[in-house]
Amino acid sequence: MPGWGELFAAPEMQGLRPNPELMGLIPGWQAAGCRRVLDAGCGVGRHLWPLLQAGFKVAGADCDAQVLKILQAGLAHAAAPAAAAHLVQADLNRLPFASGAFDLVVSVNVINHGDTATFRDYCRELARVLKAGGHLFIYTSPREAGEIVRLPQTRELEPGTLVDIATPDGAMVHHFPTPAELREQFPRFAVLRQEIVWAPIPFMNNVELPQLIFWAEKGR
Questions:
Q1: What is the CATH number of domain 21-154+175-193?
Q2: 61 with 41: CB under 8 angstroms?
């Protein structure tokens, strides 16, 4: 199976539509005064582009150089505001940004990648770089989705942590949190929405799976 970067560098994957839940919240984030945004796990820019077009000052972080190269090439041919996006190659558990650097942090279908300790590190860093009063939006696959994508050869390394599963990047380790587990990572946050919805997965031929929406405001 291909890795994450190889998967999303494929031409057919570069035209994926942005997550509708994220898109629906943009007006509210604008009204709340969010300006500086981190797209954590930006890939080839599925969400970075619409955030730029909405007028945010956006930084994109991704661990894969291949997808960032594709995104940078697109930005280089865009209008000046889009070209101003700041891209960094970095693991999300070691973000190269100051604490409180962003008004809004978004991460869509990213923090599942790794074991439980890595998942917790991702969450810690997303919280760290968000300012007090800032907004956090996470969209990820919950424990129920992990049960659905099991295969006969799937191995459970620890509770909710699976490898060799029925996803395009299924050879990678994935951690599928429960809603309570995700909530526990952000104790100083006021939850604005936490809900599991059934939604089409664009990189899995739009098969519907449970998805966990977590939108919260960091305490002041």
A1: 3.40.50.150
A2: yes
Q: What is the DSSP string of 24-85?
A: HHHHHHHHTT--EEEEET-TTTTTHHHHHHTT-EEEEEES-HHHHHHHHHHHHTS-HHHHT-
Q: Which residues contact 117 (CB under 8 A, 6 or more apart)?
A: none
Q: Where are the domains of the chain?
A: 21-154+175-193
**This prediction's pTM:** 0.94
pLDDT tens profile 163-204: 999 999 999 999 999 999 999 999 999 999 999 999 999 888
DSSP code for 3: -
Q: Which of 207, 202, 204, 212 is nearest to 47 (CA)?
A: 202
Neighbouring CB atoms inside 10 A of 168's CB total 19
Question: What is the model's pLDDT at position 1?
Answer: 44
Q: What pLDDT score does 203 carry?
A: 81
